[in-house]
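Input chain follows. Return C-alpha cells only.
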Amino acid sequence: MITKIYKINNSNKKELNQICELFSNNSYQDHQYKKISKDQNKIKELIKIQTKQLLQSNNNSIEIYSPNDKLQSIIILINTKDKDYAKKIFSNKNSIKQFKQIKKQFSYLKTIKILLHTIKTNNTLKKLISKSDYLLYNIIVDNKAKGQGHATKLLNPILNKFDNEKLTCKLLTHNPSNTHIYEHFGFKIDDLKTENKIKNYIMIRHPQINKIRIKKQF
C-alpha cells in the first residue's frame, strides 16, 4: 500500500534530507549530469540543491509517495489540475535562487551554463503541465533496492488511479534506457528533442481502460 510520506507544507527536515540523499546517491550518473562534471561529489551536491529547492517550494501540487517508511524508493508527481499554480514550481525565479549555492561547487561560467540548462528544462516541463493531468517528475529507487520490484509497487497503484479517473500523465527523461521501462507501463514516446547534445524524451500515457497491469517487476 502506498502512503504519502512527505507533505510539502510540513517542516519534517529529516525526511527532506533523506529524500535529497536518495536523489543525490542514485541520480549522479544520469546522462544530464555526466555532461556537467566528472566530479561525483560536486554533482551530488548539485542534485541536493535542486531537489531541496523543489521540495521547499511550498507548492501543494507536488505529491510524493513511497511504498513504506524506509524511503528506499519514492515517486514525485505534479498534479496539474491548477496548471498556472503547478507551473510556479518551475519558475525561472526559483532557478536563479540556486545561483549562490551552485557557485560554491562550480566556476562562475559553469554555474551560468547549469542555470541556463535548468531554465530550458523547466520551460519544457511547464509545457508538459499544460497538456496533461499529471506530470511524473521522477521516480527514484535506491541502488541497493533495485531488482526488488520497487518501481512496480510505486507505479501500479498510481496508474490504476489514473486509469479509473481517466487521467493523462506525461514525463521527461534524459536516459534512453528508461524509455523501455516506462513503455512496459503504457507510456509512449510523444516527442524527442536534443539540447546541448542531451536528448529529452517526452513520454505520454493515456488512461487504459480494462487493461491488466503487467506482472514484470522493475
